[in-house]
Design a protein that fits this description.
Distance between the termini: 59 Å
Number of domains: 3
Helix content: 40-55%
Shape: elongated
Strand content: 5-15%
Radius of gyration: 25 Å
């Protein structure tokens, strides 16, 4: 594997982690996620973020989980660890997270101390089915009859075992991100994006999609060449929603290479010659936003 391939994979992993973290900063997402996949009902007012960094009492080594939420006024915690590839060390890692959390909460030396209740979750967006064990496995043929220890068992959400249709039905940010990440080809990704564009999207979904688009180079790279296609789809509806306008603007801002000064002068001359906006856009592929800016500059120069 070349250095550039490894670097791109690592970059993609970091981007996915950032998207998941940003989306799960919203309590609505964690509440819906736990309800959808585990059928636990939590009220928004009863949950709060918890510091995910722990310093172990053995060696002062820092352990940090992706996301930790706490049920208020209780010692109940939800740990969510996002993985874009299968990690066979996850049983040990999750065990460490649980021990560190228990250690950080053990402020009393009383014999009546009760350890916190921890609900550990692994969210896998790996392109392959997650086949790592859910807990630490011990040797059974050489234990001399000693009973096996009960290590923590983490709960798994594997996008490879959830259909795209099920994910898109939720109309939530995290499930939308999971649906997009699940697609393996450009054609599959385009199909999901077109579906999202064509249905009516509320403001919350729009904000979630914006987070995904701003942080995913995978989607940027795939959609960069498709701006015109998506514009045509939207304009065919005859009535572009605020989100659809935002979507096109965001794509143009993020994926167009920009226009150099020489191109700007040519476009300004087109404006002075009173060419129609749609003709200028068709010829130069300039964004509406940049065209509007140049038109204002041309008008300003006339006044001066």
């Amino acid at each position: 594997m070349t250095d550039s391939t490894t670097e791109n994979k690592e970059k993609g992993k970091q981007e996915q982690d950032k998207i998941v973290r940003k989306l799960l900063e919203n309590k609505k997402e964690i509440i819906h996620f736990v309800d959808k996949f585990f059928r636990y009902k939590i009220r928004e007012k009863d949950i709060e973020r918890y510091n995910g960094k722990f310093v172990t009492s053995y060696g002062f080594k820092v352990r940090e989980s992706d996301i930790i939420y706490k049920i208020k006024n209780t010692e109940i915690y939800i740990i969510i660890e996002h993985q874009s590839t299968v990690d066979y060390k996850m049983p040990k890692r999750m065990c460490e997270y649980c021990i560190c959390l228990i250690d950080s909460r053990q402020t009393s030396k009383s014999k009546f101390y009760r350890a916190p209740l921890i609900f550990p979750i692994v969210l896998s967006t790996s392109k392959t089915i997650w086949d790592a064990p859910l807990t630490i496995i011990q040797e059974e043929d050489s234990n001399y009859g000693f009973p096996a220890l009960n290590y923590p068992i983490y709960n798994l959400v594997d996008i490879q075992k959830v259909t795209t249709k099920e994910l898109l039905e939720d109309r939530m940010g995290l499930t939308l991100a999971m649906a997009l990440e699940k697609q393996k080809t450009k054609e599959e990704l385009e199909k999901v994006i077109e579906f999202v564009i064509k249905r009516r999207i509320n403001e919350y979904e729009a904000n979630c999609l914006k987070i995904i688009l701003e942080n995913s180079s995978k989607i940027r790279n795939e959609l960069g060449e498709e701006i015109g296609k998506y514009k045509k789809i939207m304009e065919g509806d005859g009535d572009m929603s605020n989100f659809e306008e935002l979507y096109v603007e965001l794509l143009e801002d993020k994926y167009n290479k920009g226009i150099n000064q020489g191109a700007e002068q040519i476009i300004k001359q087109m404006i002075k010659n009173k060419m129609e906006d749609k003709e200028i856009i068709k010829i130069t592929n300039i964004s509406r936003k940049d065209l509007k800016r140049l038109k204002l500059e041309v008008e300003g120069s006339k006044i001066a």
